[in-house]
Specification:
seven-stranded antiparallel sheet, Phosphorylase Kinase, domain 1, about 40% helix, alpha+beta, about 30% strand
Length: about 200
């Protein structure tokens, strides 16, 4: 049994040794959110928000739209913000906004502080894991939360960029094209370097 284990460990080591690794490659893989944004905008019972005008340093990393989940009709768009901090846009029409806010902010607490972005007053929430900016819109029956490990300045930058119109769709398309171009450039660099002897 010990000999078998030794052979397995040796085989695993040999495989690891000969499989190429790129330790310098960025582990964050940007995603395109254009299709999900279009689908969510058609299906959601509220105006779905997405950023417009953010710099290329904001890399989209996750996107989902769940039409009938535990959170109601829920939209999520996550980013790796500048400084390698996480920030996300969360929206829901859940009938209990306090529960939704608690869930997506990992139990952050409401403060008396507010900030104004896009002409709307956002309430600050502070937590051990995530901070957040929250906008409750009873007219459209939607709660929007910008949350994450990023600073309030970065969360505010994201909140200020949110729009429900064509500009956001164009930004999503641009972000997808830019992510694809960067991946192609990295792949080409890897090919160039591996071809050098």
């Amino acid at each position: 049994m010990v000999i078998s284990l030794g052979v397995i460990v040796l085989a695993a080591w040999v495989i690891y040794l000969f499989v190429p690794h790129d330790e310098h490659q960025d582990p964050v893989k940007p995603v395109s959110y254009r299709v999900e944004l279009d689908s969510a905008r058609r299906a959601a019972p509220y105006p779905v928000l997405a950023p417009h005008g953010l710099s290329d340093d904001w890399r989209p990393t996750s996107v989902t739209y769940e039409p009938e989940g535990q959170q109601g009709a829920a939209w999520h768009l996550g980013f790796m913000a500048p400084g390698d901090e996480y920030a996300a846009v969360e929206q829901s029409d859940q009938s209990r906004p306090a529960k939704f806010i608690e869930d997506v902010t990992h139990k952050a607490s409401k403060t008396a502080k507010t900030d104004t972005f896009g002409g709307e007053k956002w309430t600050r929430y502070e937590g051990e894991k995530y901070d957040a900016l929250v906008l409750e819109d009873p007219e459209n029956k939607v709660t929007t939360v910008v949350t994450g490990t990023a600073s309030f300045a970065r969360l505010g930058e994201l909140a200020d960029s949110l729009t429900s119109g064509k500009a956001a769709e164009e930004a999503a398309s641009k972000a997808a094209d830019e992510a694809a171009r960067k991946e192609a450039d990295k792949a080409a660099e890897g090919t160039d370097e591996s071809g050098k002897g």
